[in-house]
Design brief:
Elements (H helix, E strand, L loop, with lengths): L9 H4 L2 H18 L5 H12 L3 H10 L3 H10 L12 E5 H12 L4 E3 L5 E3 L13 H14 L4 E7 L5 H12 L5 E7 L2 H5 L5 E2 L3 H6 L7 H5 L7 E3 L1
Parallel strand pairs: 1-4, 1-6, 2-7, 4-5
Antiparallel strand pairs: 2-3
Length: about 230
Amino acid sequence: MSRRGYVPEDEKQFTGKQLELLQKAADEVQFLLDRGYDVKPVTTFVGNHYLFSERQRLALARSVSAKEYIQKRMNKELLQTGRGYLPETVHIDGFNTIITLEVALSGAPVFYCRDGVLRDLAGLRGTYRIIDKTQAAIELLYKQLGLLHISEAVFYLDAPVSNSGRLSGLIRQCAKGYNISVQTQIIPDVDRILEQMDGVISGDAIILNRCKSWLNVIPAIAEQLESIWRIQL
């Protein structure tokens, strides 16, 4: 069995005293980001102070955003009460969304970030392989879209990433058991396309800053899982 996004050091780096230090550091990162500093030098500075690992610094960078950007994202999120409509078609950042669910299913740490998004530390550096959690992750997503009465989903997969074709096939295969029309597109630059869209599903902060509207569906899916390692910084 594969555990997407898990490394043994997580048991020490994201528990006990280390977790307490990370939560304190997150407040300090928040303070600096709200005053206009960029996230990379801020997490480097704070991380050096606390002697954090690269993985802990990555958790800080993904968990904390300037309040200006948090508000901007929330203003475009469609599942909040009174925040607008739900589109018939959603546009899904395929690898980003599926990998986060695979990580959650693997019992590896996922982070409930300050903008309300659930993110992971798995990272995608041009390589991907389907694991024993992949089909379950896709089906959890379909079930949630069904609850929201979404009739069509378009998955966008990065062409340069290995096994994008195999994942595309599995996405379409899994859709046969659900009342939803599914398309997959394997394209060179997913981010550039999604940044122009309504009804986006992604955890990528830059996409959420730029897209027209989005749906924050992953936290609701995660709440249904019996065992999940969810960390809030």
